[in-house]
Amino acid sequence: MIYLASLLTAFSAHIAFPGPLISLQTLQNVLNAIGYPAVTLFVLIESAGIPVPGESIVLLASFTAATDHQLQLPIIIACAAAGAIIGDNIGYVIGRVGGRAIVERFGKYFFLKPHHLDQAERFFARQGEKAVFFGRFFALLRIWAAFLAGMNRMRWSKFLLYNAAGGIVWATLAGLTGYTAGNLLHSFGQLDQIEGTLAWITVGTIAVLALGWMLWRHRRKKSKVQEEQTVKEQTLIDGAAHEVLEKQESKV
User: Fold this and answer.
1) 3-class DSSP state for residue 69?
2) What is the 3-state secondary structure (H, E, C) of 195-250?
3) pTM of the model
4) What pLDDT is recorded for position 75?
5) What is the mean pLDDT of residues 83-111?
6) Which of 21, 43, 89, 228 satisfies CB 3.0 to 4.6 Å to 83 for a cystine?
7) Distance, CA of 147 to CA of 48 (rounded, Å)
8) Quick one: average pLDDT of 171-197?
9) Residue 98 and residue 100: Cα distance in Å, rounded?
10) d(C-alpha 50, C-alpha 67), whole Å
11) Four-point Cα dihedral 67, 195, 103, 94, nearest 10
């Protein structure tokens, strides 16, 4: 948990993530023009490491499905999951083949710098599975988790398992969120604002939980040290008592 919080903190503190690169109206136009493939395409591109609004188009498509019924929610979810899985695998291959060399040459164009990778490398060595699964639910990690997994040589079979699980769960939750909002809200803009607020709440919650976990672990470690010291002292006392007893017995 603490490694995930550190990774999120590093990305949030050092990466100046831009405003929307593609307007809501453009997303709506693309969705109207090609329908379901737009969902798969945007999610795939985002998952492969290019910052386009993949999650936004899933929410928009689901919202639209609830308001005008031209799209079907199960198909939207399936398209989003497929895009997430395929895109992440592309990102994984790119990271495995190019790795740090790509970041050093092109990372500045996508808001990732070489020194941002230090904590990520340590984290993936210990908790790569969690990053792949939970990274799907955070904008910056959603873009880079697969690349980092490949760069750090995470076993592909393990990556695929957690990648697929995360993609399916994320697509389902995003689709249900957009569809529910479509039945309750008056405009998609309201959902977009709620999404941003929830993202910060989620990061804050993880930071608080990580801090609590770190304090608990520190207290546990301190308690364990004290117990070991007590046992050590008791052993010394018992040893001394045993020596005294042996001396007394030898005199007798």
Assistant:
1) coil
2) HHHHHHHHHHHHHHHHHHHHHHHHHHHHHHHHHHHHHHHHHHHHHHHHHHHHHHHH
3) 0.66
4) 95
5) 78
6) 43
7) 8
8) 77
9) 7
10) 30
11) -40
145 and 131 in contact (C-beta within 8 Å)? yes
Nearest to 112 by CA among 223, 249, 227, 15: 15
Q: Tokens 């697509």 correspond to what residue?
A: 171
Tell me the domain boundaries of the chain.
2-189
pLDDT, mean of residues 90-105:
79
Nearest Cα neighbor of 133 from 174, 102, 169 is 169
Closest Cα partner for 30 from 47, 54, 66? 54
Question: Which residues make Cβ contacts (< 8 Å) with residue 138, sequence separation at least 6?
Answer: 8, 199, 202, 203
Cβ count within 10 A of residue 15? 15
Say which DSSP state 50 is in. Answer: -
* pLDDT on residue 130: 78
Residue with tokens 């998952």: 47
Query: How much is the pLDDT for 232?
Result: 75
Residue found by looking up tokens 């386009």 in the block? 52
Between CA 65 and CA 80 the distance in angstroms is 14
Please name which of 163, 112, 138 lies closest in space to residue 55, comparing C-alpha atoms: 138
Contact 124, 162 (CB under 8 A): no
Token pair recorded at residue 193: 């604002």
